[in-house]
Design a protein that fits this description.
By secondary structure, the protein is α/β, with parallel strands linked by helices. 39% of the residues lie in helices and 23% in strands. The protein starts with 7 loop residues before the first strand and ends with a helix.
Length: 380
């Protein structure tokens, strides 16, 4: 732990879309709190481009993330690589380096268990938990009686294609200098972990990846407002058309610990004009409705609408803030590193989301006859 207010030297692993459009610009914006001192990526071209842009000297640019972590010379690590982050997070924590880890934390519960002893030194990157509108919704819900006041939660995600969400960013083409051997090894490692998590069924593996890579944001909001789901009663997946996108749409529902119900509909609609996520908390006197824009649009406000009964009619109050959720997440990470502040999602909470995701996959197998293996088949 360093002293509060100290500027943190941070190393960034993975220079893909989220690092390029969000993390690196915000780390530069918050130069009062962070200094980017090292970068890693499989692509030498990306390393050269972004190293020059963010002032990272060539000796601190690495094509191997584990090598960067082992080299030291930093106070903390941000993991934005693709796939599971279990091994890299463990390596950083062994070096005594606090970790901000993009989801998924890991693919398997076994990986998460190996990180459990260092829970206070790791934050999982669920930026929506730090959105000012979410913070205000949690405050209002607390005034209504907290989780026990929630009758039902409805979540609907209109998931636009990545290129739809990123047109504004004018990103360069995908790099062509990725080393084939390294890419193959990472892919093989991911396949082994997926097998260990849910088994070999293709539908189960696709569903699990949607859960841990995208729906996990909604699970994190459920945890924040109501606690993790108590049951997974219904799961369905279906394609847009018989020859539609490889990823299906997903529907999940069940019971909350407080007795209410939840429903999540994640709709894979590549051609919708814009990403949109709506989370509605229904209570006895009205509702709290959150509408999230695309996460890549920095400082685009999430809208919270509070609806209740007033003088025999309906009263609606709207809350919006242009304070960026990802930036608030970075501020919270700085507080974790320098002052020991507890993150909203550490290892234990990240593992809870993995467990819920595996419960969803297991229920999918029970309802469809798909052969579920790995940890999901053994959950108690």
């Amino acid at each position: 732990m360093t002293e509060p207010g100290k500027r943190i030297r941070i190393a960034v692993a993975g220079l893909g879309v989220i690092a390029r459009t969000v993390h690196l610009p915000l780390l530069q914006r918050r130069a009062d709190l962070f200094e980017v001192v090292a970068l890693s990526d499989l692509s030498p071209a990306r390393l050269a481009e972004l190293g020059d842009r963010y002032g990272v000297e060539p000796p601190r640019r690495h094509t191997d993330a584990a090598e960067m972590v082992g080299a030291g010379g930093c106070d903390a690590v941000l993991l934005a690589t693709s796939g599971s982050h279990g091994d890299l997070a463990a390596a950083a924590l062994r070096q005594g380096l606090p970790v901000l880890c993009e989801k998924p934390l890991a693919y398997t519960l076994a990986e998460a268990d190996r990180l459990a002893d260092a829970d206070a030194a790791l934050m999982v990157g669920y930026m929506k938990q730090y959105d000012p509108a979410v913070t205000e919704a949690a405050r209002l819900l607390d005034g209504l009686g907290g989780a026990a006041a929630v009758h039902a939660v409805e979540v609907t995600v209109l998931h636009a294609a990545g290129e739809q969400q990123l047109t504004f960013a004018n990103l360069p083409p995908a790099p062509r200098d990725l080393p084939a051997g390294a890419v193959a090894r990472l892919r093989e490692a991911d396949e082994r972990l997926l097998d260990a998590a849910v088994g070999a069924d293709p539908g189960a593996r696709i569903l699990y990846q949607i859960l841990i890579n995208s729906i996990s944001h909604d699970l994190s909001l459920l945890r924040l407002f109501t606690g993790a789901p108590a049951t997974v009663d219904h799961v369905a997946t279906w394609p847009l058309t018989p020859v539609g996108p490889a990823e299906p749409s997903v529907e999940i529902s069940g019971r909350l610990a407080s007795g209410g119900r939840y429903g999540i509909r994640w709709l894979n609609l590549p051609d919708v004009p814009a990403y949109r996520e709506t989370v509605i908390l229904h209570h006895a006197r009205g509702a709290l409705e959150l509408v999230f824009p695309s996460p890549y649009l920095l400082n685009a406000p999430t809208t919270l609408t509070a609806v209740d009964r007033h003088d025999g009619g309906e009263r609606r109050a709207e809350f919006r803030s242009v304070t960026e959720a990802f930036e608030q997440e970075l501020v919270a990470f700085h507080a974790m590193v320098t002052a020991g502040a507890r993150p909203l999602t550490g290892v234990a909470e990240g593992a809870a989301d993995l467990r819920t995701s595996q419960q969803v996959v297991r229920r999918y197998g029970e309802l469809t006859g798909a052969a579920i293996g790995g940890e999901a088949a053994k959950l108690t």
